[in-house]
Amino acid sequence: MKLARYFPSGQPHAVGVGIVSDETIVAIRLDDDLPSLSAILESMDPLSTVQDRQGESLPLSSIELLAPIDQQEVWAAGVTYKRSQTARMEESEAAASCYDRVYQSPRPELFLKATPNRVSGPGQPLRIRADSKWNVPEPELTLVVNSRKQLVGYTIGNDMSSRDIEGENPLYLPQAKVYNQCCGLGPWVTLASSFPPRDEVGIHISIRRDNQVIFSGATGLDQMARSLEDLIQWLGRDNDFPHGVFLLTGTGIVPENDFTLLPADVVDITIDGIGTLSNRVVQG
């Protein structure tokens, strides 16, 4: 089952939640007891929670999809794929040993990526920093975790990154990663019970400029060096999330060093079992 947040047609301030199926969305009746998508994800059994609350069916083309986030924090993991380790080491000689050690270490790299106001949903713009010259998208499977630190679903994340800022000094990581419109999430949440076997899940990215594909790449979850459960366990150490948390799990697709995003580029990320997240790039 796939659950989405959306604006109904002609109601730009009335956020709805629905079940996505093919080209339609079935509205879920919300009330004070179940007011939001995060409340559904927080329930003991999200699947059964929505079964008796289904309403009218609408074409997807008639609604505006929103990022599937309410009040949750967004965190991210780094250097979880071999390709990511190599790319980080290429950014800076000073940082090379740090990234090599974290790839080998039991403790993963984890950092706060975004608050809800910094997140863009499907079709919304993602930003490259005005003070950066080398920017890339990072396509990542994103875990949807409830306040009990249970994995309840999956979505797509785009962990925008200013590689020149991070490469200048590893201590600049928050500035390279956290800023306005720095994170894409969506287009919806696939519940954990509906997700395909992990070793069959592929991750694909395509970047278009002037309607031409200028970069594409693919990887799979079987290329990860860490398990999803291990990342959640480390994130939850001495850390509580009253509203739940989204955890981006790292990237295995990194463009060559001579590539950088430009304003008006369009980034499409597709993950098997979820769908496609598409965002246009803006700057400054």
Notes on the structure:
The protein is α+β, with helices and mostly antiparallel strands and 284 residues long. It folds into 2 domains: 2-66; 73-283, Fumarylacetoacetate hydrolase, domain 2, CATH 3.90.850. It has helices at 37-42, 46-51, 82-91, 93-104, 163-168, 173-177, 228-235, and strands at 2-7, 16-21, 24-28, 54-59, 64-66, 73-78, 109-114, 119-120, 126-128, 135-136, 139-145, 151-159, 161-162, 183-191, 202-209, 212-220, 245-248, 266-271, 275-283. The strands form 3 sheets. Strands 1, 2, 3, 4, 5, 6, 7, 8, 11, 12, 14 and 17 form a 12-stranded mixed sheet that branches. A 5-stranded mixed sheet has the order 9-19-18-15-16, with no helix packed on it. Strands 10-13 form a two-stranded antiparallel ribbon. Helix 3 packs antiparallel against helix 4 (93-104). The relative contact order is 0.20.
Structural class: alpha+beta
State the total count of DSSP E strands: 19
Report how far the terminal alpha carbons are from each other: 37 Å
Low-pLDDT stretches are none
The tally of helices reads 7
Helix content: 10-25%
In short:
By secondary structure, the chain is α+β, with helices and mostly antiparallel strands. The protein has helices spanning 37-42, 46-51, 82-91, 93-104, 163-168, 173-177, 228-235; strands spanning 2-7, 16-21, 24-28, 54-59, 64-66, 73-78, 109-114, 119-120, 126-128, 135-136, 139-145, 151-159, 161-162, 183-191, 202-209, 212-220, 245-248, 266-271, 275-283.
Task: Record keyword descriptors for this entry.
284 residues; alpha+beta; Fumarylacetoacetate hydrolase, domain 2; 2 domains; twelve-stranded mixed sheet; 7 helices; 19% helix; globular
